[in-house]
Write a structure and sequence with these properties.
The radius of gyration is 23 Å and the shape is globular. An 8-stranded parallel beta barrel has the order 3-4-5-6-7-8-9-10, surrounded by 7 helices. The protein has a two-stranded antiparallel sheet with strand order 1-2. 39% of the residues are buried. 45% of the residues lie in helices and 11% in strands. Helix 9 runs parallel beside helix 10, helix 9 crosses helix 13 and helix 10 runs parallel beside helix 11. The chain is α/β, with parallel strands linked by helices. Strand 5, helix 5 and strand 6 form a beta-alpha-beta unit. The chain starts with 13 loop residues before the first helix and ends with a helix.
């Protein structure tokens, strides 16, 4: 019988490790020197061992099965079809179409695509029963996997108004569609809005779950997976744990409704930490963010092009973004491993803490009338704004850094002549039911000051 090599080494307890560290600190305070407090109120220790591995959960985070997703805004139909086919030939495994108007010829858009081997997502800027029914017919005929990302609550949160429909309200529209379209997944939650607006991870998880809970309460038939569109930042291990904690809690909540389908997660890197100056650093940021998404168990990842803030959609930016994922999948062997974070004391501990804190906040939201009530009352926006302001203050003081922007900036960078898009918050005065939640990047004020002096 083979000998276990670890039997030759005596185990070392966490207490002994801490004593050794305190000795090496030479009188400095252990807690003040080495304990880091995250924005979520989690105390991060300098080391973790089996004593921190108090609660293990069974996850199905199959990193090997994530799909590379290409975003396409459908304006010119022929060009969109050409771009979709080219993206598939170059490695895309799923397409997320943004459909701005109901007059788009959806049959023509899909007829040349290999629907038998790719996944299609539709993000609508409207909601229409007839339009979705056309897609359902195509899905039945082609046996295609199609997700319609319908999120009226997300529309209200982002725009301040509901979708305009013939039905009494948006939930009536969803209930009709859920009964009359058997081949499509219809319900989606855009939680990327909360991340990009400055919510911390506990808030992101809790708001996303409470947002989903409104649909679970109001939609009579949900027989397909709910799609969650989630954004991730560069706090590498925390983001892995965030996705795991979210899956864990959603499963528990869904069971209360006898909804036993797993959630379907599409991840996109955040815009909040992206910059227009020293823009190539954005590629480094999105690389680690995509890695977190893979290890955290994303079903699909739509990378953010490094120049998405200031350039219109272009072939080079899209190709680089797609190639980042191809390298991770095919050359970094991320396609060879499942459940890669299992057994990591640090990630398991973070997962438990994020889940516990998010569950407390979720219960608090529900006890006060639910997510939609707090959204209408402005509570959700106010809480996110408080967190965002605290993070902005850290950035403005230099305690939170973005390389090339508030640390080691290249003063010779000039961007004014390169801006094809307006990269800052746009305020469009109009009448709305609620004050919308606004996405805002950390570097905006600093970048505007630099642009003014070019």
């Amino acid at each position: 019988m083979a000998k276990n090599l670890f039997d030759d080494f005596s185990s070392v307890s966490a207490k002994l490790w801490k004593q050794k560290i305190q000795f090496e600190l030479n009188g400095a305070d252990y807690n003040e020197t080495l304990i880091w407090n995250s924005p979520e109120g989690i105390k991060v220790k300098p080391f973790y061992d089996k004593e921190d591995f108090t609660k293990k959960h069974s996850f199905s985070t199959k990193a090997s099965q994530f799909k590379i997703c290409q975003n396409i805004f459908v304006f010119d139909l022929d060009k969109s079809i050409e771009k979709a086919l080219d993206s598939i030939n170059r490695g895309a495994e799923s397409i997320r179409f943004t459909i701005p108007q109901e007059n788009i010829n959806i049959t023509k858009l899909l007829e040349k695509l290999p629907l038998e081997k790719i996944v299609i997502y539709f993000h609508f800027q409207f909601i229409s029963i007839d339009f979705v029914k056309k897609i359902d017919t195509i899905a039945k005929e082609k046996k295609a996997t199609i997700f319609c990302l319908l999120d009226p609550i997300g529309q209200l949160a982002k725009d301040g108004n509901w979708y305009q429909t013939e039905e009494k309200n948006n939930f009536d529209t969803l209930n009709i569609l859920s009964k009359e379209t058997a081949s499509l997944s219809l319900i989606s939650i855009n939680s990327g809005l909360y991340q990009n607006a400055g919510a911390n991870m506990v808030q992101q998880i809790a708001y996303c779950l409470a947002h989903a809970n409104e649909y679970l309460n109001r939609i009579a038939v949900i027989n397909k997976p709910i799609v969650f569109q989630i954004s991730v930042g560069t706090n590498y291990f925390f983001e892995i744990a965030k996705l795991r904690a979210f899956r864990l809690l959603f499963k528990k909540i869904a069971q209360e409704y006898q909804h036993n389908l797993d959630c379907h997660i599409i991840v996109t890197p955040t815009k909040r930490n992206k910059t227009i100056y020293d823009y190539n650093v954005n590629m480094l940021r999105t690389t680690t963010e995509c890695m977190s998404a893979i290890l955290g168990g994303a079903d699909a990842i739509a990378n953010l092009p490094y120049d998405a803030l200031y350039h219109k959609d272009n072939e080079f930016g899209d190709r680089i973004a797609r190639n980042q994922l191809l390298i991770l999948k095919d050359e970094s062997y991320f396609d060879k491993v499942d459940n890669p974070a299992d057994g990591s004391y640090y990630i398991e501990n973070l997962t438990n803490q994020l889940a516990e804190k998010a569950l407390v906040l979720f219960k608090d939201i529900e006890s006060k009338g639910g997510f939609l009530k707090q959204l209408n009352e402005g509570v959700i926006k106010r809480k996110i704004q408080e967190t965002a302001d605290a993070e902005q203050a850290l950035f403005d003081s230099g305690k939170e850094t973005l390389l090339g922007t508030n640390k080691y900036p290249n003063k010779n960078d000039k961007m004014k002549q390169d801006l094809e898009l307006f990269p800052f918050v746009k305020i469009k005065p109009r009448k709305t039911l609620i004050t919308p939640i606004i996405e805002k990047r950390l570097a905006e004020k600093l970048e505007q000051e630099r642009l003014a002096t070019e």
